[in-house]
Records
---
Amino acid sequence: MRETDIAKDPDLQSGGRQWFEPLVYSVGRPALKFAFMLVHDIDIAEEITQEAFARAWASPGTPVDPVQFRRWLYRIITNLACDHFRRERQVAAQAPSISRPLDPVTTAEARSVDESLMAALRSLSLSERQAIYLRYFEDQSFRETSRIMGRPQVTVRVVVHRALGKLRQRLEASGQNRMVAV
């Protein structure tokens, strides 16, 4: 939506949020996938995505343009994922380790994916996972990936290059040398 559209739309002038629902429908699924790639837990990914949309709804500065909205939302998701890991480290330091059994759906999903690749992806840092996901799973350009991550394009290229090297090493070490050349 362009600024001229906003000026003509009485709902937007009066603070209406009718423009928000189409953005949620268009970005909701990719946002959930992005959050899942960062935290590797569907329940936490859903919570993070929901919280990100709630914050977007409540903020008066939410971008209306779909491209800017997506960038902005992904930054919120990244920040929420960082907050999650920070809280998780604090809880882990204070409480004894408790493992919970996987439900059957999660177990089936875990078997259906390439476990070696998932293990290799999990071993990457948060920013490396974010860059790899945006670049290769969402097919974003380096320019767009750098905008979403809020980092210079050169830095993102280096992060992706190093992350791919780590993935190759880990997959070769696990006997999985069928990684697609990128």
Note: The two ends are 35 Å apart (CA to CA).
---
Amino acid sequence: MSETSTKTSEPCVYQYLASPLGKLTLVASDSALHSILWPDVLQTSKAMKKILALEPSKNHPVCSRTALQLNQYFRGERISFEIPLVLKGTAFQKEAWEVLMDIPYGCTLSYQEQAIRLGGKEKVRAVGRANGANPIPIIVPCHRVLGKFGALTGFAGGLKTKAYLLELESTR
């Protein structure tokens, strides 16, 4: 499992990764991965401005390690990740993301079950918002959370992407 850190002041770089889901953008510092951005995120000028303020990298150690492990995952050769992470968010978001990292490969959890693990089913909307703000999708597997009765709902990468990732994990 990936380790998490609260370091936030290190300079970051970005690197693109061609994937079955489109061009992902990896953002990392020398010590950890900070985010994975979906292809459509870069369509917004705000996100593109933030990325272009960073240095591009083709051989950054954390980005390269992340790219290698993601490619292994997409080929069905990896079920867990060994990448240091920086998870920036509120205390509740971080707790929600920790629950996500406890969902085993190939398994799912409902938003309500996740809310109960965080203190009560009345937190289900807050859980949905926290999962939607997850800065490191796939590695922090928010795609493994489903609506009631197994419905595919709410995923920042799109429901087709969520279905793809769940199908990938179900075939192993």
Note: The domain at 4-85 is CATH 3.30.160.70 (Double Stranded RNA Binding Domain).
---
Amino acid sequence: MPLKEVRARIENLDNRILELIEQRTALAKEVLDAKKASGLPINDVEQNKVVLDRVTNAATERGLDGESVRRVFEVLIRMNIERQHELSGEGNLP
């Protein structure tokens, strides 16, 4: 397969990944509301650990570098936490 075609396939995947990140981040409002109703803090350290352990194990089972995938999800979690802070009025808005 020519390199141009491979790169086009990668670009397509990148766009799908961006769509999924957008969908994941959009759930921040629902997560924030549920946390408020349950009296949980925005940064739920225990849940973060559950997610990170789950994705690290799943990545390893798929033959991926678990630690690299873990770092990606650390960024996704941080993005969601920041969004929840913004939605609650505690964000770093200018």
Note: The chain has four helices and no strands.
